[in-house]
Amino acid sequence: MKWIDLRSDTVTRPTPAMRKAMAEAEVGDDVYGEDPTVNRLESLAAEMVGTEAAVFAASGTQSNLMGLLAHCQRGDEYIVGQQAHTYRYEGGGAAVLGSIQPQPLDFEKDGSLDLDKVAAVIKPKDFHFARTRLLCLENTQSGKVLPLDYLERAVAFARDRGLGLHLDGARLFNAAVRLGVAPSKISCGFDTVSICLSKGLGAPVGSLLCGRRKLVDRARRWRKLLGGGMRQAGILAAAGIYALEHHVARLAEDHRNAARLAQGLAGIDGLAVDTGTVQTNMVFVSLDPQRDEALQSFLKERGVLVSGRGTYRLVTHLDVSQEDVDTAAQAFRDFFSSAGV
Ligand code: TLP
Fold first, then answer.
1. Whose CA is nearest to atom 21 of ligand 1?
2. Which of 245, 277, 307 is the last residue of a domain?
């Protein structure tokens, strides 16, 4: 059975052309800095993101953690969104491994952090307090693209307050495609930027921490400590190079499919669809949580996979076609019509 898997864009599988690039990759020992394909990927990523350097990591979680550890010492603090991946979904890694204290704040509706609220939680320089060191943003945030003028203000704010600035850019390329700008236009003011190759870009594994050379050097040391020195990683890096060269522009197709899915789901009685927030490849819908189980098993019988409780994040990607989106929307409609009840 062909599944229409809307749970995440992490589920994509490498295409035949990507697998070919992986099979043919020239490799060496990356811990010695001798894997030519990893080196090429790191230069390419740094160039595209507009930073001095980049280091290849096993996952977005590892890359974000390397970034936080590069910026902050024991007893330092980072300001971060309450729902941000770097706070909520990374096992508390910064606190567990770095003794770094998070200061979470609610995201605004547009996915930004209100800079006045950020200013209000910066701790005074006094030994009672953790040292506020870093501001972390996320772009896209739940599929929403941070406005460029906001980013400009955030960069100026961080400079003014002497804070480092980290971007969880797991889906930076979705934001760039949506805005029609080079990714570096979004990321250039940040000190560190984590990008993921294994989301919409379709690589099986891999992220990069891009940033100022000094911070990337520190992060490379942390990567080793975290067990992330990967030896002949060129096989994975080749997939990443392929993804960056061939799968960025096509993200527009995922965005069109998400908009089409939202349209297809709008107006179903019993399902609330937030069509206004569909900017990239994510659609959020909600329903009476009591119907979760019935809905999920009904959809599964139709070959459609979703996850969530009460609220569902439906994600389009490389392995979801326009036809798949229509099939999924029809399956939802059937469930909520008398046939599905
Ligand atoms: N997020 C996953 C889940 O963990 C929620 C997903 O399915 O979206 N930053 C952001 C903004 C992310 O969404 C994710 C993955 C990561 C970082 C971590 O990437 P990985 O999974 O490679 O560690």
1. 60
2. 245
